[in-house]
Amino acid sequence: MSGLSHVPVMLDEVMQALALGPGQLFVDGTFGGGGYAEAALAAGARVQGFDRDPRAVAAAAGKVAASAGRLALQVAAFSAMAEHMATGAADAVACDLGFSSIQMDDAAYGLSFQADGPLDMRLSGAGMTAAEFLNTADEAEIADILFHYGEEPASRRIARAIVAARPLATTHELASAIRRALRPKPDQKRDPATRSFQAIRIHVNDELGELARGLEAAEAVLAPGGRLAIVSFHSLEDRIVKRFLAERSGTLPNASRHAPSRSQTGPVASFEPPMKARRPSDGEVARNPRARSATLRVARRSAAPAWERTGTSGREVAA
Prior knowledge:
Blueprint: H1 11-18, E1 25-28, H2 35-42, E2 46-51, H3 54-59, H4 61-66, E3 71-75, H5 81-84, E4 90-96, H6 101-105, H7 130-136, H8 139-150, H9 155-165, H10 171-182, H11 194-205, H12 207-221, E5 222-232, H13 235-248, H14 262-265, H15 282-287, E6 295-300, H16 314-318
Parallel strand pairs: 1-2, 1-4, 2-3, 4-5
Antiparallel strand pairs: 5-6
Helix pairs in contact: 8-9, 8-11, 9-10, 12-13
């Protein structure tokens, strides 16, 4: 990871929303390149960072050493933050979802079809690789993953092509199989493998389940009045964040106008009504095109107890 850098998305908007001050505790749930953490340290806050990628934590050893004890890092998924912290300890939590530019540009992760690399896709380096999944799963399961996590309309055709091309070992082999199945037009701007790579990455890392559990963990560690900021990058993630904040703030619409309001039948709202979602400025998108699809959602923790944690899986929240 040396020699690579990550540009934090919507940094100014996130820091403005979190309003960190000296001595406050900020939890960076997806440390990555440390952009949010550095801004929090500059504001005088203490930082507890989490990242499931041990390579990201190892690369930040110099930042930890230079922080005079104000930065601590843990190799762990952000859904585990509640197991490593006291309840109600944090003044602010932020998560920049998905993968970093560092991971995307390093072919060793196997996240991109732009450069050939091993068909891995694991952000933590642990568990089943993308190659192991694609080379052992049946055609129907692969098609379901592509459809639900990539919103790929040609999921069955692509799954059939993947099975026919097995065994697959590299990102270029997978991308080639997908392109042969879809036969893109010469002037097509979006690579036909984009949705499928997203879907497989989400599945291998259980990203949607991790997000659902991570939101519950953030709820648990935030102190009353603490701020939560989540930056998501595609509609599947944003729907989970939007629903969570609406549900926990008591603003989720009733299924029926005749039914009693959720505030009367469920737990007391653990968040105040969320702020209006924000998108990156035109200037930021021009400087960093990867910010184009970002959405920032922010809410403030109430004094009510955290709701019971559900341990939801990725397939459950995507259904």
